[in-house]
Amino acid sequence: MVQSKHSQSGFVCFAAGGLIAWYSSKQPIITLSSIEAEYVGLVTAARSVLSMSNLLIELGYHGNDRIPFQICGDNINALNAADNLGAIRSIKHLELRWR
Q1: Is 94 in a helix, a strand, or coil?
Q2: Is the CA virtual torsion 36, 38, 40, 42 positive or negative?
């Protein structure tokens, strides 16, 4: 069996106590560290949550206001990178490779 160098990403999204969306797939790029792989997973989740938020707004669920969502991760360095992208030197090049 050939092993892929792509990391696996996944997330689940809950609303009102129930599961409304889930996702699991190989990442589109080969990351160089676990921080990068976790960061790519966080960004993938954030993109999906933003799309769901826009859909709910279009349906009139919450007026024209953004709906607050909480995105959780299990890698403290990836979470720090999401808060302050310039602070983590190891992922500065990630944006250039991930298009």
Answers
A1: helix
A2: negative
Q: What is the phi-psi region of residue 60: left when phi exceeds 0, alpha when psi lies from -120 to 50, beta otherwise?
A: left
Residue from 92, 17, 13 nearest 45 by CA: 13
9-24 pLDDT, tens digit per residue, is: 899 988 778 888 889 9
Q: What pTM was estimated for this model as a whole?
A: 0.76
Overall residue count recorded for the chain in this entry: 99
Question: Can you give the three-state secondary structure of 38-90, one letter per residue?
Answer: HHHHHHHHHHHHHHHHHHHHHCCEEEECCCCCCCCCCCHHHHHHHHCHHHCHH
The C-alpha atoms of residue 59 and residue 10 are separated, in whole angstroms, by 26
